[in-house]
């Protein structure tokens, strides 16, 4: 069955930046990626490239920033009061997850001063051209519970227990 919306896809991948530097490899962690196709669980360009691919497919995909984690926005670099980070040893390069207007976001510390901290709320891979090598391991229909939640559920979850609400 080819990859289509409402299916759970399991795949292995490697991710490289434009210089060929390895950024991530699911095989090294022995943890394949599992996602619900058509529910924005992965970047849009990758989802488009996987649409219609069969189980066993191996493909290479290069994504420009707009198709991946977006173009860098310098307006997302800002100064905040040092008191916003009650962390000892705060240093450039540290990352924190915080609640933003559109949900969780990663904040990267760029500079630390006595009164202010310069932070960047761009995604760490924003502005990067990314190259993926993908291997589709399996494709299956999503359960009602997965469709209701919008993402795959662990095998130990009772997939028959879903909230009483309309499933897309």
UniProtKB/TrEMBL annotation:
<keyword id="KW-0143">Chaperone</keyword>
<feature type="region of interest" description="Disordered">
    <location>
        <begin position="147"/>
        <end position="168"/>
    </location>
</feature>
<dbReference type="InterPro" id="IPR001179">
    <property type="entry name" value="PPIase_FKBP_dom"/>
</dbReference>
<dbReference type="Pfam" id="PF00254">
    <property type="entry name" value="FKBP_C"/>
</dbReference>
<comment type="similarity">
    <text>Belongs to the FKBP-type PPIase family.</text>
</comment>
<protein>
    <recommendedName>
        <fullName>Peptidyl-prolyl cis-trans isomerase</fullName>
        <ecNumber>5.2.1.8</ecNumber>
    </recommendedName>
</protein>
<comment type="function">
    <text>Also involved in hydrogenase metallocenter assembly, probably by participating in the nickel insertion step. This function in hydrogenase biosynthesis requires chaperone activity and the presence of the metal-binding domain, but not PPIase activity.</text>
</comment>
<dbReference type="InterPro" id="IPR046357">
    <property type="entry name" value="PPIase_dom_sf"/>
</dbReference>
<dbReference type="GO" id="GO:0003755">
    <property type="term" value="F:peptidyl-prolyl cis-trans isomerase activity"/>
</dbReference>
<keyword id="KW-0697">Rotamase</keyword>
<dbReference type="GO" id="GO:0042026">
    <property type="term" value="P:protein refolding"/>
</dbReference>
<feature type="compositionally biased region" description="Basic and acidic residues">
    <location>
        <begin position="156"/>
        <end position="168"/>
    </location>
</feature>
<feature type="domain" description="PPIase FKBP-type">
    <location>
        <begin position="6"/>
        <end position="93"/>
    </location>
</feature>
<keyword id="KW-0963">Cytoplasm</keyword>
<dbReference type="GO" id="GO:0005737">
    <property type="term" value="C:cytoplasm"/>
</dbReference>
<keyword id="KW-0413">Isomerase</keyword>
